[in-house]
Amino acid sequence: MTGRILVINPNSTAAVTSGIDEALQPLRMAGGPEIECATLAEGPPGIETQAQVESVVQPLCRMVAARGNDASAFVIACYSDPGLHAVRETTRKPVLGIAESGILTALTLGWRFGVISILAKSIPRHRRYVAQMGVQDRLAGDRAVGLGVVELADESRTLGRLIEVGKTLRDSDSADVLVMGCAGMARYRQRLQDAVHLPVVEPTQAAVGMAIARVRLGWERLSGA
Question: Which of 183, 158, 177 is nearest to 80 (CA)?
Answer without folding.
Answer: 183
